[in-house]
From TrEMBL:
Keyword Chloroplast found: no
Ranges annotated as spanning the membrane: 53-71, 92-111
Domain RDD: 52-124
This protein's name: RDD family protein
Record's bilayer topology term: Multi-pass membrane protein
Length: 130
């Protein structure tokens, strides 16, 4: 048995091709990452530019804002939101798991056909256009 080919990322999940509710594309994801990491870098200046402080602040930004605003400040600036696959609230543990795997980097750069990173798959989340 072979899996049916799909025309666009998210089709298999019943998501629209483009617009609100469609899968977030690479450019927006990278832009959001730069905003969040840049904010963490600037804030870490108060702690002497310590690399561990940068990661801790980046993690805090993700963990605090994802459950409260449905995405980090970078996500929101780039018109993205993080949701569970069933559309419900992400809860508190999903942002923690997702962020820890995001910091490791490797799970975030391995994607499936729907452009979901392993960090999102493990957390049961999906990054969508708002």
């Amino acid at each position: 048995m072979t899996e049916q080919a799909h025309d666009y990322p998210g089709e298999r999940l019943g998501l629209p091709r483009e617009g609100s509710g469609s899968i977030a594309r690479l450019g927006r994801r990278v832009g959001a990452l730069f905003v969040d990491y840049g904010a963490a870098y600037l804030i870490s200046g108060f702690f002497g530019w310590d690399p561990l402080a940068i990661l801790a602040i980046f993690a805090a930004i993700q963990i605090v804002f994802i459950p409260t605003l449905q995405g980090s400040p970078g996500h929101r600036i780039f018109g993205l939101r993080l949701a569970r696959l069933d559309g419900a609230w992400t809860g508190l543990w999903r942002p923690v798991v997702r962020t820890l795997l995001l910091i490791v980097v490797v799970p975030a750069v391995i994607w499936d056909a729907d452009q979901r990173g392993l960090h999102d798959k493990a957390a049961g989340t999906i990054l969508l256009r708002a």
